[in-house]
Amino acid sequence: MLSFKSKIICAISIFLTYFLMITETTSADIFAERVIRQNRLQATTLSFSDRNTANNIQIYNLFSLMGLLPGGFDIKAVRIKKDGRMSFKYHMKAVKKAGDDILCNSLNIEVFPKGGGVKYQGNLMNLSINSTISDQGIDNWIFLLSLDDDNINLKNKSCEFELVVNTYRNNPNENPYGFRATRSLYNNIIAGNW
After folding, report:
1. Which parts of the chain register pLDDT below 70?
2. 2-31 per-position pLDDT tens digit
3. Is the CB of residue 119 less than 8 Å from the CB of residue 132?
């Protein structure tokens, strides 16, 4: 025969087995916490804007030329201003949006940092500049856009492009993950009739 203790253990086991069989779902919350002393999490911001160099007002358009003739040029300036707390590297390029390939590929551009030598000189569509925002948080750029080709097929053609500035961390060709920002300046060029 079973002792009294054995009967109680057997009854509890049968009850638990029956209870677990009729219970369809169970729930368990597990909580673990680790405290690591002297660690800090700090949030920061990455933001910049394109601004007018004369009055520091934010701009969205750069070149707007109608009637550009061979040998003609225009000069504009842009201030890239760090608006966030995080410093950054950036890549500047021209991206065609609309218009005639023949004119877009015939435009030349020279790019100068204020107080420095030529950073880029060549075809507009090949523009590619990598830079790092200065310690003061302001970079001033001067752009000279010109049409040096007098091909008759350029008459009355148009070229719409954006001057795109992308931030990056390590490499300008890296996937755009993490902190990043992009700004674009719209440009519209229409060749004249000669």
Report:
1. 1, 24-29, 41-47, 172, 174-179
2. 788 888 888 899 988 887 777 766 666 677
3. no
Name the residue range of residue 99's domain.
48-191
Query: In this structure, is residue 173 part of a structural domain?
Result: yes
Helix, strand and coil in the chain, % to nearest 5: 15, 40, 45
pLDDT for residue 188: 97
Residue 50's nearest CA partner among 169, 161, 176, 140 is 140
Q: What is the pLDDT of residues 98-122, one digit of tens each?
A: 999 999 999 999 999 998 899 999 9
User: Does residue 56 form part of some domain?
Assistant: yes
Q: How many CB atoms lie within 10 A of CB 47?
A: 15
What is 90-140 written as a DSSP string? EEEEEEEEEE-HHHHTTEEEEEEETTS--SEEEEGGG-EEEEE--TTSEEE
Cα separation, 146 vs 20, in Å, equals 83
Which pair of structure tokens corresponds to residue 9? Answer: 């253990």
Closest CA to 123 of 107, 111, 112: 107
Strands 182-191 and 120-123: unpaired
Q: Looking at the domain assignment, is residue 58 inside a domain?
A: yes
